[in-house]
Amino acid sequence: MSGAVEARELLNSLPSAKEALNDLVSGIYHAGRESRTWVESPEHGVPFMGSTDILAADLSHINLISKKQVEANPNFKIGEGWTLITRSGTIGRMAYAHSGMDGLACSEHVMRVVPDEDKVKPGFIYAYLSSMFGVPLVISGTYGSIIQSIEPHHISDLPVPRLGDIENQAHELVQRAADLRVEATALLKQAGIKVNETFGLPEKLALSHRNFSCAVASSNNVMARMEATFHDGIAQESDRLIDAIPAKDYLIDLGVSFGETGRLKQVFVEQEFGEPFLTSGEIFRQIYAPSRFLSRRLLPDDNSWATQEGDLLLARSGQVGGIIGRGVWADSRFNSACVSVDVIRISAQNASILPGYLYAYLFLTDVGYRQLIRTAAGSSIPHLSVSDVQKLLIPRGESEFEEEVNDMVWKAGRDRAEAQQLEDEARILVERTIKEGGR
């Protein structure tokens, strides 16, 4: 209940009008608990977001739930402009549903707040609920000891101050942020398609870890690597596709540098005394919000640990089919952040290959992903090593083509950074107006 009593007292003291949340929405609900039927084919499935997926910047790799199950329970579906709130486990995390989420299915662990647009702007509802006043009120309804939860009726009477034109301004900022995120996703998808089409690469290869296959490998290759996944039929197919490309370079020969934080002494301090620290899970979120800060005094003086804009962040460990082998473009928000030992930093700003183009091949094409993930070693928690990544062959195209792809990736990064800035502005605007008495 920390902060909830103070927030409610301040809201009650406002001279401006207030209404219950339930009076401003078309509904507050979740999908209800039921077993899920997973499918492999997009023809028979709908992308399904879990409670962590609503916070993700990239939704292209999420699992599919049966279309029949979604049709039988329409509450699974998400609509554009809704506010999504995690309602169990880590409670109170929120996301604004942009157009890229419209029609997707979502877990029962996420509560949907569906605004009535005849009464209130969707962006304002999100900015208010995710503010320093809304969050304490939302989580104050938490119940349970082992797995905490909240239900729709716990937030239905939550007071919402009416702020006049401020509501329109907040909505426009939030909506613009949502549009920029959709634009960034489209740019990255287009960049990946452009690389595939230029080199004749397929959009998707089979998932070898889910499909039985037989392959023959030379004894020399087996002596170097003995894992079946390194020599399976899908991995060999990716080799044949790359061999057919006339121009290619080994990554190690391109002047690319690799950063590994190693086992830094992790002493966490208050934000003013430290530098942001990000785990391999946190780098994939659409909101850059470090929760821990490493002691600045104990970090190496050479800044070898610091992330720069344009770095490629590669998740090096995890379960195959999860985040391992996936990558993130470090936009301006990541400057001077320190990533965990489970992330490899690839820096190509001063290399003989453009960082945006390298990102597009490695992380936006399935062949690039296949080449990375085949080198994962380990049984319980597979991991990738820098030495294996350095040995990858990178297809090369005309300089104009690589520059075009590079520009698309940089633009997507700038869009994502601006989106967070706009969303923060909306939240600050609402908070400041409430503090000033609703004026």
Distance between the termini: 27 Å
The CATH topology name of the largest domain reads: Adenine-n6-DNA-methyltransferase TaqI, Chain A, domain 2
Strand order of the main beta sheet, please?
A: 2-9-6-7
Beta strand %:
15-25%
Keywords: DNA-binding, Endonuclease, Hydrolase, Nuclease, Restriction system
Organism: Marinicella pacifica
GO biological process, one term: DNA restriction-modification system
InterPro entries: Restrct_endonuc_typeI_TRD_sf, Type-I_RS_S_subunit
Question: What can be said about this structure in brief?
Answer:
It contains twelve helices and 19 strands. It is of the alpha+beta class. It has a four-stranded antiparallel sheet with strand order 2-9-6-7. Strands 3-5-4-8 form a four-stranded mixed sheet.
Structural overview:
The protein has 439 residues and is of the alpha+beta class. The protein has 2 domains: 4-162, Adenine-n6-DNA-methyltransferase TaqI, Chain A, domain 2, CATH 3.90.220; 189-398, DNA methylase specificity domains (Adenine-n6-DNA-methyltransferase TaqI, Chain A, domain 2). It has 12 helices and 19 strands. It has helices spanning 4-13, 67-72, 122-129, 134-139, 165-199, 219-224, 228-231, 233-243, 355-364, 366-373, 386-390, 399-435, and strands at residues 18-20, 25-29, 38-39, 45-49, 64-66, 83-86, 94-96, 105-106, 110-115, 159-161, 248-250, 257-259, 274-278, 292-295, 312-315, 327-329, 338-339, 343-347, 393-395. The strands form 6 sheets. It has a 4-stranded antiparallel beta sheet. Strand 6 (83-86) and strand 7 form a beta hairpin. Helix 3 packs across helix 5 (165-199) and helix 5 crosses helix 9 (355-364). The longest helix has 37 residues, at 399-435. The chain is globular. The model has no long low-confidence stretch (mean pLDDT 90).
